[in-house]
Amino acid sequence: MSLSKRLFPFFLPRRLAAIGLSLTLVSAGLAVPETAHAEGRIRIAEQFGIVYLLLNVVRDQQLIEKYGKAQGLDIEVDWTQLSGGSAVNDALLSGSIDIAGAGTGPLFTIWDRTYGRQNVKGVASLGNFPYYLVSNNPKVKTIADFTEKDRIAVPAVSVSIQSRFLQYAAAKQWGDKEYARLDKYTIAVPHPDATAALVAGGTELTAHFSNPPFQNQALENPNVHVVLNSYDLFGPNSPTVLFSTEKFRDENPKTFQAFIDALNEAAQFAQSNKAAAADTYIRVTGAKIDRAKLLKILENDQIEFTTVPKNTYPLADFLYRVGAIKHKPASWQDYFFEQAKAVPGS
């Protein structure tokens, strides 16, 4: 039985949704580009997992609206959820969204491709989180143990932060020329579906480069184990960020600043009150996760909620070195807007 048929129960609904999104984006791309809307509206795309918890807090407490009113502005906020950096990048470039939430991998890709044109840059970090590559194949102890019989789930093949982490690990293992060696084993599957398939077993999907809380839920199964921790590659780092176009930032300065202020308040709230943050995540996302288990994840010392980007540059430097991006950033400040440069990031 083929892989697609055996994974049918797990991710067909979202795959169909993704197809619908792709058709929409193609249509948008063929149409006349959307004109910039006036101050007072912002459209935000998030993905799956507690790495987007700051956005959950912003939404739950209506913080953008709060800071907009402080400037005499009534801001309309639209929220959407996508899966994978490719879909998020397409949505941003088509004019369907204003703020993109994705990994630093997709940020580097779109920053490079829009350099000197739309000038997409980072807005803020969403925090520091370890990402685990997990597997239910007992023979896979390290990345060197993957074979043609294995398939590794990632949000987006090649460009997602999980894919970029895997490429970085492959380069450390076999050299820069072999950085894409494991790409042929990766398939694009949303985190919830990949977790369900991995835990259930019985398919060619034997690994998942995940994020919290999905990696923690998978590890509750005794047949699932950690193959790689992203912190082993870079140390603590900001894998997930928010980014936007220069046009949106310049034409909507009050709305943009309200968004920044909202994020900063959300970060202080989440970092200082993990219990309330857990309640917010469950309430906003509707996640079916035990509150005590979620709180344990949030209280992990390796997780920090902050808008300050940390340790992002090593991956950017690597991607330039292997030719995945054409422009070499001199520092992390090259791919973040000025608002982020006021803080001691990296």
UniProtKB/TrEMBL annotation:
Pfam families: NMT1_2
Position of the signal peptide: 1-38
Keyword annotations from UniProtKB, A to Z: Signal
Name by which UniProt lists this protein: NitT/TauT family transport system substrate-binding protein
